[in-house]
Amino acid sequence: MRYSPLVERIDGPGARAWEIHGAAVAARRRGEDVILLTVGDPDFATPAPIVETAIAALRDGDTHYSDVPGRPALREAIAGHLSPGFGRNLSADEVVVTAGAQNALFSAALCLLQEGDEAIVLEPAYLTYEATLQAAGARLVRVPMPAAHGFRPDADAIRAAVTDRTRAIVLATPNNPTGVVLTRDELLAIAKIAVERDLWVISDEVYAALTFDRPHVSIASLPGMAERTVTIGSLSKSHAMTGWRVGWIAGPPDLVRHVERLELSMLYGLPGFIQEAAITAIAQHEAIAADMRRHYRARRDIVVAALAETPRLSILSPDAGMFVMVDVRRTGLSPFDFAWRLFRETGVSTLDATAFGSPADGFLRVAFTLGEERLAEACRRIDGFVRGL
Q1: What is the pLDDT of residues 87-133, one digit of tens each?
Q2: I need a labelling partner for 160 at 20 to 30 A (CA). Which of 77, 84, 201, 319 fits?
Q3: Among 224, 177, 183, 216, CA closest to 200
Q4: Is 139:160 a contact under the CB 8 Å cutoff?
Q5: What is the tens place of the pLDDT at every residue in 16-43?
Q6: Taking a C-beta distance cutoff of 8 angstroms, is the pair 283, 317 a contact?
Q7: Which CATH superfamily is 6-46+287-387 part of?
Q8: How far apart, in whole angstroms, are the C-alpha atoms of residue 173 and residue 117?
């Protein structure tokens, strides 16, 4: 039997990078002493008020088809939540609810890009961007944000990458895997290019609520960007709701209507009880996110301090999120070999960051999604492993 050539577009380093995580999960299920630092899945329980809302909705029979683009109350709540950061009052017509941020990116790509279009992607970039954009028929144009420059964007490099086929610029702020938060000036430089060349900007802002030291700025708030920005958000990280699959797209009403028709074909809407829980989550957004930030800031500081004295490692302290980038180039091991040897010899699983793009070659992405005691133990094992090389 044959398969569509489309399956080749959804393969690649990004898809294969998760093999070590799968091996670590399997080992843990066998009862082995494994510490998972590979995936950005918060270890916290979803806050009780959110869970109780879902339970009450289930008991009330909220188990039937629901509004495909999201219930009006949920879309209005998301619009209200985003409005201060956008510097204007958004309407519910500018928001569509999706099954998580990855589905949001895929939906946006299918509605904005066509065969032969080029999409500039600032790298390091999240693993699934490659497959998602290629599935839409676009060609990725990778513009590096070099490690030597702190994984920050170069406007001149972006401008030089624009061609007559360029349709969109794809960025993430805060960034996964680096935790870098783009400054207003950096975003203004990107916005200038987008306006001059009439480009869309797809802005992944999933970690916006988890910034530590640098304020988050939405590029949609900048002059001339409201009508050309697609903002992707989610409750997964800020509310420990990864398994609930609640995300959204905020953008021009015409785009929202196109995405709605696409969601009609793919998902037919999120379950009603999940949408009700999401309304509660948005209503308590700041209090919940503030608590998450406090925990993640403390965990970041634990990892950075614990590995700062480890020989031959260099640590990039993130501005946001739940990951630390660890430079292992001076160990003499590739990040792939380092990650697998570390896992096999100590039970600590980390992710070779090379799959996020060439600027991350030589780095590991280490998640700090565990309690402080277990996280400290993981750092002790990493330190001992490096000292024993």
Answers
A1: 999 999 999 999 988 889 989 999 999 999 999 999 999 988 888 88
A2: 319
A3: 224
A4: no
A5: 678 899 999 998 999 999 999 998 888 8
A6: no
A7: Aspartate Aminotransferase, domain 1 (3.90.1150.10)
A8: 23
Angle between helices 101-112 and 253-266 (to 10 degrees): 110
241, with CB counted inside 10 A (0-12, 13-18, 19+), is: buried
Nearest to 250 by CA among 46, 10, 139, 87: 87
Q: Quote the Cα angle for 141-325-18, to 5°.
A: 70
Report the phi/psi class of residue 36: left, alpha or beta, with left for phi > 0 and alpha for psi in -120 to 50. beta
Torsion of the alpha carbons at 114, 138, 100 and 355, rounded to the nearest 10: 180
Residue 92 · residue 79 · CB < 8 Å:
yes
> What ranges do the domains of the chain cover?
6-46+287-387, 48-284
Q: Residue for token digits 């503030």?
A: 290
The dotted CATH code for 48-284 is 3.40.640.10
Does the bond joining 174 to the residue before it have cis omega, within 30 degrees of 0?
yes
Length of the chain equals: 389
pTM beyond cutoff 0.90: yes
